[in-house]
């Protein structure tokens, strides 16, 4: 493989695969072009031979996972179940995304570099087969969020209030991706920075001499 001068994933596209989805106002799918071929398990690194990869990711999944305690001992690892594709909407949308990725991959502009489609392969053509391929081995972009959601007093499930204070515990704030009440339809990093800035403002306000409560 030739030496790389970038991180292999410089070209991205955010698209809307389900324009009628009332739950998502922004893009719901992300495509990312990598200048290397990934194998069936991207985490294992490059696949054999030469090629390019177009990754598809859900930006506003309907499926919801869980993080639960496994007992009273805080050193016991939590029980994490991401429940990928628990909601069929997500599979249908990913099928749309795979078709979009295929269209990009087959575009004339990439003709110079194109051979045969390796994964999932041209025989994986109808929705059922594409859905089965997707369910076989789902992966994540690492954009976990919302395990400790913020909300108002009337939100029964809210763990922290709108000033990031853990309800029922004095002197404890949370300022990370876990407080997002919904999944943002974007990569999560910028929102986490904004949460950190907000937490800094709140702490500055609460510790300033002028603050009376
Ligand atoms: C592989 C990968 C690629 C990503 N790429 C992008 C991207 O390109 N763009 C983008 O916007 N987002 C990206 N994200 C998502 C983004 O990185 C996360 O949403 C963001 O970092 C989450 O911030 P956080 O503060 O909630 O958690 P983290 O950034 O995970 O911070 C948690 C911190 O807590 C520390 N910690 C854990 N346990 C303890 C403990 N017991 N005591 C003390 N410290 C502890 C950890 O060491 C860590 O520093 C990516 C995520 C991954 C995994």
In short:
The protein has 2 domains: 11-68 and 82-136, Cholesterol Oxidase, domain 2 (2-Layer Sandwich); 142-213, no CATH class. Helix content is 22%, strand content 11%. It contains 3 helices and 5 strands, in the order E-E-E-E-E-H-H-H.
How are the SSEs ordered, and which strands pair?
Blueprint lengths: L10 E5 L13 E6 L18 E6 L7 E3 L10 E3 L6 H18 L21 H10 L52 H19 L6
Antiparallel strand pairs: 1-2, 2-3, 4-5
Bound molecules: flavin-adenine dinucleotide.
In round numbers, the mean pLDDT is 90
Number of helical elements: 3
User: What structural class do the secondary elements suggest?
Assistant: alpha+beta
Largest sheet, described in full? 3 strands, antiparallel
Provide the helix percentage.
10-25%
Give the overall shape.
Answer: elongated
What is the string of SSEs from the N terminus onward? Answer: EEEEEHHH
Work out the radius of gyration.
Answer: 21 Å
Query: How many β-strands, per DSSP?
Result: 5
CATH fold-level name of the largest domain: Cholesterol Oxidase, domain 2
What CATH architecture of the largest domain do you see? 2-Layer Sandwich
State which percent range the strand residues make up.
5-15%
Tally of separate domains: 2
As residue ranges, the low-confidence spans are none
Strand order of the largest sheet: 1-2-3
């Amino acid at each position: 493989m030739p030496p790389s001068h970038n991180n292999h994933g410089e070209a991205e596209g955010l698209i809307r695969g389900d324009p009628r989805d009332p739950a998502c106002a922004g893009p719901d799918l992300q495509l990312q072009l990598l200048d290397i071929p990934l194998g069936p398990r991207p985490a294992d690194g490059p696949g054999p031979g030469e090629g390019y990869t177009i990754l598809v990711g859900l930006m506003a999944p309907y499926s919801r996972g869980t993080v639960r305690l496994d007992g009273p001992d805080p050193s016991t690892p939590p029980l994490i179940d991401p429940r990928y594709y628990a909601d069929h909407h997500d599979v249908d949308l990913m099928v749309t995304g795979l078709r979009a990725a295929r269209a990009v991959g087959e575009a004339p502009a990439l003709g110079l570099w194109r051979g045969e489609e390796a994964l999932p392969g041209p025989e994986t053509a109808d929705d059922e087969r594409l859905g089965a391929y997707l369910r076989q081995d789902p992966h994540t972009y690492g954009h976990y969020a919302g395990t400790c959601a913020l909300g108002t007093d009337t939100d029964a499930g809210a763990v922290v209030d709108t000033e990031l204070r853990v309800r029922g515990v004095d002197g404890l704030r949370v300022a990370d991706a876990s407080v997002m009440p919904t999944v943002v339809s974007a990569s999560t990093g910028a929102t986490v920075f904004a949460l950190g800035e907000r937490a800094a403002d709140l702490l500055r306000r609460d510790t300033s001499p002028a603050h009376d409560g």
